[in-house]
Write the structure tokens for this entry.
Amino acid sequence: MTDSRSLRSFIPPYILNRIIAHGSERQRSSALITLTHVRALRHSPTPPVRSAAATILPPSTQPGLVQRSLYDAQGKMLLPGMPARLESQPPTGDAAVDEAYDALGASHEFFWKVLGRDSIDNKGFALIGSVHYGQDYENAFWNGAQMVFGDGDGEIFERFTRSLDVIGHELTHGVIESEAGLVYAGQSGALNESISDVFGVLIKQHVLGQTAKEADWLIGADLLTPRIKGIGLRSMAHPGTAYDDPLLGKDPQPEHMRKFVVTQEDNGGVHINSGIPNRAFYLAAKALGGFAWEKAGRIWYDTLCDRRLSSEATFSAFADLTIVHARQLFGPDEAKAVQHAWSEVGVDVTQEKP
């Protein structure tokens, strides 16, 4: 999990490109620096450094015991930065540090208590995060070794630690690497993004104690400033409706395969086409009822961990396995509900077990 190609950033390049094209001078500068930096990291042959943090907090020897370390990058682009808060230390008063600390704890607790998973690698992986990364940095990312959070510019984006689901999303990228290793391109890449959204939003719902019916199903609802016309970065319930703003443009996510976007950008549209499996999960969770993590989340998690899931899985291949696991875990009614959810978004599924 230390290849720099593992880099997964939250804000997609098409949003940063919109800001570069339509923003103020300061906004364009921040977006350009962010986009250039993410591209450079993604193509760098140098693996991310974990040693400084790992020597402080090695993997836990007690199953289920969270090990967190937060660092302050102090506006620089050097990782991990200065130690800011280690496991069991009290709040620092720095909102970004304390938000990240609490969110990493909530994410770890969700995977352990709900799914029986011991951190990212299921072996007690120590959770490391760096905040205050860069100047007006417009993103958050997982680099294969740790999570990194910018402060945003305060005009378009708030600090990225404000959003629990964003932090859960980035941590889930590590879980995906550890399990299925879904290739970050095309449909498998869109599944990678969608599964990260799924567990990001489930972590938020778990903390809030919300049922599938009560939840807002928004990703990044706390990120946009009041200047932006939008309710979040993505809507799992209604892809394509999260924002419609003169600066950011209109949310481009499709909610059905007939609107699948074919593009060379964004690794084949991984942040765009993830709207299709996102809506399928939402429909399945609503149909199954109750707390979404109890049935739908369990089904998606077991599918992710299924060794039959190819690293280049298509939507259909993933959908078929979710139906199998729904039947095995809960029964034919749940399998039918999951199958119907995928059919509603135009993903072909088979009646037979794969």
